[in-house]
Amino acid sequence: MTLLEAREVHRVYHQGRPDEHEAVAGVSLAVEAGALTVLSGPSGSGKTSLLTLLGAMARPTSGRIFLRERELTSLPERFLTEVRRRTFGFVFQQPNLVRGLSARQNVMLPALPLGLDHAALGRRADALLEQLSVGHRARARSDWLSGGEAQRVAIARALVNDPEILVADEPTANLDSALSRQFMAIAADLKAAGKTLLLASHDPIVTDSPAVDRRVAMRDGRLEGP
Amino acid sequence: MILNPSVVALLGGSVASGALLLGGAAVGAGIRAGWDLQSGSERQLRLERRTVLVSLLVRVALALQLLLLFLLVFTADALAPQFTGAMCAAGSLRAAPYGYPALLTGLLAAFLSGLWLVLDHADGLGHDHPLLRVKYAALLPLAPLVLGQAALLALFLGGLKPEVVTSCCGSLFGEAGRGLGADLAGLPRGPVSAALVGAVGAAILSALLVRRTARGAPPSAVDAWSLAASAAAALPIGLAAVVSVLSPYLYELPTHHCPFCLLQAEYHFVGYPLYGSLLGGAVAGVAVGLLQPFRGRASLADALPALQRRLAGACAGLLGLFAALAAWMVAGSSLRM
Questions:
Q1: Tens digits of residue pLDDT in B177-186
Q2: Of A8, A62, A74, the CB nearest to B128
Q3: With B78 labelled, which of A25, A139, A144, B333 sits at a CA distance of 20 to 30 A?
Q4: What residue segments make up the domains of chain B, in order of their start?
Q5: What's the fold here for domain B175-337?
């Protein structure tokens, strides 16, 4: 079943200026529910731009994005924020944890605007950190965490609102091979738990992982192959 | 022209509001003409981004209209000592041509601006811009009105000269005088009082009936339209009653009907909450009826009844405040007529 779909999507930066650049050029793509899909391709191929469009973090220049049958790109910002908050979890190239806050507090952050019971939210954050094997570091300040620990805290943060879709942009770019394999093992577990995963990466550890259901190659803003 | 900070603020505010609204109405007309939510074309997506900005600019312009109405009255009152014969804003507004036309068009513009702001707010409650075409169509007559008001205001302020001999409020709003003010002052107290109690009472009662509608269900058409009609009637009747009935009690002078002296410190600035609550209550009440035809829009099915309930509550509260102030003016007076 198609969960997320891009229809004839274009994304042009600096439109109308001399440095105009079309990062995504008429891409149509359907992402299946419960599958792990990887966008691959060299730097500048448009993976990150397409990922931000599919993840409702940016709006296309033209074309539409659908979440099931619900059209996302025309939604006023407050509706889109709600969709983004409840449907998508984001993992970035850098963990982007808030310095000075503990790992647990960082995980709780995206759920705070929902006004949930604070104690229950704290227990959920602890459970996620435990699930990702960093429960013992819950009270540690984020700037004291190692790279692998910080990445797992970032994954826990992406999952705190129990999103249907986990979007990750170059999640292994700053991890060594062992940690990259560990990340893919976590991704496989999440897929097994019913999550839909959408990753952008050119790391062979990611693209060649047996957990990947579909590889979508990109070049010059377009999809390659069938 | 008399240059002081209030005059500069009035002129600057009205020019800024008119310019923003003119631009907003023009762009809004373009958005309305090209809007096609089914299309994913570059043009449509550009219009979707643009409507966010245009709505914001128009909101600012129209909110400014509401402030400018009260600033005009305040400024006219503050300038009164500069004109021979003027005791309050009534004389200042007569000290140059277009003073009263500027005030009356300002009142109309503020009332319609309030309604547009409610319409825009309701549009933002639906995920698919459900009232976009309606709200931009409504801007087309509103923009010329606001621009006309800005022109009248500029002509009035530009024509003001110090030491001009003008009329005092006693002659402008005296029962023996001529003109609209004198006509209002000469209205029979009994029927005007009855009309005031009837209109404000009916509006508050209708608002409470709308509030009593089950949560999530739209108010009945009868309740919504009764509220809109009675709230619309309450505004002119309330203004007439201030001149005809209420102000003599406040001044404790049966022949003093001025609707502006009550804005002064001597009378605890009671005019500002009195007029503010009347205008706000009328806008909120009329807006309930204005939104009623759109209750069938799918994306507003949940949000619109809740908004109508909130507006009805605001109407009841504001008109209740107006009624309380009016009752205080009469009951607290030693004048008996």
A1: 677 878 887 8
A2: A74
A3: B333
A4: 1-167, 175-337
A5: Four Helix Bundle (Hemerythrin (Met), subunit A) (1.20.120)
